[in-house]
Amino acid sequence: MKLIFALVFISLCLSFLPSLIARGAYHSSLPSGFTDYSYANSSRRLLEYKQAQSSVVDITRGYMTNSDLERAMKAFVQKCSNISRIYSIGKSVYGFPLWVIEISDKPGVEEAEPAFKFIGNVHGDEPVGRELLMLLSNWICDNHMKNPLARLIVENVHLHILPSMNPDGFSLRRRGNANNIDLNRDFPDQFFPVNDDVGARQPETRAIMSWLRKIQFTASASLHGGALVANYPWDGTEDKRRNYYACPDDQTFRYMASVYSRSHRNMYLSKEFQGGITNGAAWYPIYGAMQDWNYIHGYCFELTLEISDNKWPNAKELPILWEYNKMSMLNLVASLVKAGVHGRIFSSDTGRPLPGSIIIKGINHTVKAGRVFADYHRPLVQGERYEVIASAPQYKSKTTHIWLGEEAMTVDFILDPEVTTEGNNLLRSVCDCTYGSKSRFAFVEFLWRDHLEVYFVLIVILTSLCFLLKRRLKSNLMKHRQSPKRSVMI
Ligand SMILES: *[C@@H]1O[C@H](CO)[C@@H](O)[C@H](O)[C@H]1NC(C)=O
Ligand SMILES: *[C@@H]1O[C@H](CO)[C@@H](O)[C@H](O)[C@H]1NC(C)=O
Ligand SMILES: *[C@@H]1O[C@H](CO)[C@@H](O)[C@H](O)[C@H]1NC(C)=O
Ligand SMILES: [Zn+2]
């Protein structure tokens, strides 16, 4: 009897051994925060080992590894060089670059167009999004000359695609990043300021936050797995209870989420979620979510899309999942152009773009105009009446009533300065070095034609003034070397 027990025990130990070794390789032996560049190799070794051995690793078969993905993205921008570029927004804990593809007829060039971003693989063990985003990129590249929807997107939107926000989590095959932090709980929260410690924030989260400071996105979507539903803000409630917690743009978000679910093969047929959409907090409240932060601080309308019931399905299902989500992804991006109110804000005194902001009466949410062209893009529900208010500091606000029919509307605003004392205006145009070239030309022409003598006297005076000013500036600079004020030179 004892012998049999001993034999059973020994054989059990032997049979568990391979999986124990395999699990050990999941964890970096380095303390958190250190860069472990060997992970790609160890996971590859693990992969090779496991492909022969166990069933756990079979799930990765047919999926791109992180290096496969990087290669695929670089190959993509080579193939599609005139409508795309690649750039990195930062690095993961393990030092993997967070690559982004931008698709546009003028990639990397500022235009008066809305920008949309797709983020995949926020959770390491939800890899469907990163695969679909590469399929989406390739489909747009292959079809933008012949398909109207693809062309519309390329010509009128700047589409930014981050297939993997969490490459470390992917290689570790787990939800969190290398420090085992859930990145969709790592953003500053509006109700519970638990994540306000900048030093403790994960590098992947910080990368997204500084990305939003550089690019003004109109809308975005992150792709997840484990359910089939389009989720919209708020994700959290003030009292931590689970119930519908509407954000100011509830109607707008319901509309955008429905664009996704209704274009999907079966999302809107959901038995669990009516119409295939849900308010985040009505499903289950979470705090530190990316979508709430985007809406509040990024002025960006973000959805959280759960695109497959199975978090990590067999790779054979990827082409089907792509077919099911393809029109949804395209229509959501295209809705930025096909719906809502758009336009630019100008100043009436200089005629130049005025980066002000847009508010819709009754909706407590501001949309900022672009810094360069002062273009604004404001998603709204079609078929409704709105009061659009444009404002900018030191300018009088302007209001207009619109009725948004089937299509998008363009409304440009020209704002008048609030108080215009003569001196103020004169000062502004004299000090303004980027003053419109047309009017500068007219000024010179005026002098040249009728006041040649005045012109010469002016030149002499200005030259000597410049000389004096330079000398003074030089001595001032020497004096104030340490002073931060030295950059103020008019
Ligand atoms: C992987 O291992 C090879 C040699 O085995 C080495 O040359 C390479 O630099 C390693 N790559 C990484 C990312 O550590
Ligand atoms: C991209 O390049 C192809 C071939 O050179 C050209 O036919 C096409 O018009 C270009 N597309 C854009 C958007 O510039
Ligand atoms: C509008 O929203 C801000 C926060 O974004 C809040 O402080 C303010 O009280 C709100 N105003 C109204 C009228 O609800
Ligand atoms: Zn997820």
Quick recap of the structure?
This is Peptidase_M14 domain-containing protein. With 490 residues, the chain is α/β, with parallel strands linked by helices.
Low confidence ranges = 7-54, 426-444, 473-490
How would a textbook summarize the main sheet?
Answer: 8 strands, mixed
Number of strands: 16
Terminus-to-terminus distance: 97 Å
Order of helices and strands: HHHEEEHHEHHEEHEHHEHEEEEEEEEHHH
CATH architecture of the largest domain: 3-Layer(aba) Sandwich
Mean pLDDT: 82
The DSSP helix count reads 14
The geometry reads as globular
CATH level 1 name of the largest domain:
Alpha Beta
Q: What is the CATH topology descriptor of the largest domain?
A: Aminopeptidase
Q: What kind of oligomer do you see? A: single chain
3D architecture notes:
This protein is an alpha/beta fold. It folds into 2 domains: 66-338, Zn peptidases (Aminopeptidase, 3-Layer(aba) Sandwich), CATH 3.40.630; 341-418 and 482-489, Immunoglobulin-like. It has helices at residues 2-24, 39-53, 66-79, 128-143, 148-156, 167-172, 203-214, 250-263, 280-283, 290-297, 318-338, 422-431, 437-450, 452-479; strands spanning 84-91, 97-103, 115-119, 158-162, 219-224, 227-232, 277-279, 301-308, 341-347, 357-360, 363-368, 375-378, 384-391, 398-404, 409-410, 413-415. The radius of gyration is 28 Å and the shape is globular. The model is unreliable at 7-54, 426-444 and 473-490 (pLDDT under 50).
